[in-house]
Specification:
With 121 residues, the chain is of the alpha+beta class. It contains 4 helices and 5 strands, in the order ααββαβαββ.
Length: 121
């Protein structure tokens, strides 16, 4: 009875199809600008009034560790605008780069950021 009420989806279906149908995952019209291992810097300017760019990483250097595909930009949705899907990346930052000497030594912080928030370092 439980399998009828709570069916288990195949892994490929749950990971590829469901996010595109029900979520914000969409195919991008252009190629990803960055690849894992690329050094980047978070842009100094933050979008107003909505952004998913945390203030503590603004202007800071990092390294791309993963490309998460393309999704609809939440900033545009919040402002009621239509926007093309953007590539989303996981960026690793050294804690010392974020908080200076107050940071715990040998600590890494990872943040998911959209392509429009990043520039090549």
């Amino acid at each position: 009875m439980e399998s009828v009420l709570r069916p288990t989806l195949p892994r490929w279906y749950a990971g590829q199809v469901v996010p595109r149908v029900l979520g914000t995952s969409r195919p991008a019209l252009r190629r990803a600008r960055f690849t894992p291992g690329d050094h980047v810097r978070v842009r100094d300017a933050r979008a107003k009034p909505y952004t998913r760019q945390p203030g503590y990483v603004t202007g800071k250097p990092g390294v791309i560790v993963a490309h998460l595909g393309a999704t609809v930009l939440p900033d545009a949705i919040a402002a009621g605008r239509h926007a093309m899907p953007q590539h989303l990346y996981t960026v690793a930052f050294q804690a010392e780069d974020l908080w200076g000497g107050a940071a715990e030594p040998h600590t890494e912080v990872r943040v998911d950021l959209y392509e429009s928030y990043l520039e090549a370092a």
